Amino acid sequence: CSGCKYSLTKYCWAIRFLKGFAFGANIFNLLAISLDRHEAFINPLRYTSKMTRKKLVFILAMVWGAPVLLAATRNFWQHSSSREMSLFIDKTYSIILTFIFVIIPFFLLLGINFRILIVIKKQVQRIHVANAVQNFPSNLSTKRSRAVNNVRKLKGTLACVVVVLIYVLCWLPRIFYNFCFLFRRKDLVSPLLIHLSLFFLFLQSSLNPFIYSFYRVEFR
């Protein structure tokens, strides 16, 4: 295709599509999980009524459908435009995707999960206070079962929060790399930065199963 910088294979457009799709789906899934946990903790009484089957299907369609459309759009000019025009459009489109896939989700995930952490801290304090209060023997079993359920919910949500925060930290080198290209400061980009940014991306994906195994017994 005319927009490929390397021309290693005539199917490079398909490889770029799969890379863009996997990248977008990963970020949109993290956003959906964070928003779901946010609603479950901030509005627990209204969560069941708000999260209907219809809304769930819509969210899943957006999470998996939007990356397909955004990744497939790149192929239109790569097969129909000249190399110079294709490279120019591709660079402009990459800047747009940087905002959609990287910068905006980065700050959204950061804000949502910090708010969740604040709520978790308050919930833990309430659990400690409830356990410290002396109750009648007949109510002890009920109180304990509620405390166990609350701890399980907190651990599940905390696992999601840790996954997202690790995602944010691991993406910092790549975000700096993207900013350098956005503001035409390629002089700040070194081979070490490129290798480190890619290494942390792979590290982020590799750590997720271990995090879930640590916090979730059923995942083990």
From TrEMBL:
Keyword terms, alphabetized:
Cell membrane, G-protein coupled receptor, Membrane, Receptor, Transducer, Transmembrane, Transmembrane helix
Transmembrane segments in this chain: where? 13-35, 56-73, 93-118, 156-177, 192-215
Q: Does the keyword Transmembrane helix apply?
A: yes
Pinpoint the G-protein coupled receptors family 1 profile domain residues.
1-212
Q: What do the Gene Ontology cellular component annotations say?
A: plasma membrane
Q: How does it sit in the membrane?
A: Multi-pass membrane protein
A GO MF annotation of the entry reads: G protein-coupled receptor activity
Question: What InterPro entries does this protein map onto?
Answer: GPCR_Rhodpsn (IPR000276), GPCR_Rhodpsn_7TM (IPR017452), TAAR (IPR050569)
**UniProt keyword annotation of Transmembrane helix present:** yes
Q: What is its main location?
A: membrane
State its location(s).
Answer: Cell membrane
Identify the Gene3D superfamilies for this entry: Rhodopsin 7-helix transmembrane proteins
Name used for this protein in its record: G-protein coupled receptors family 1 profile domain-containing protein
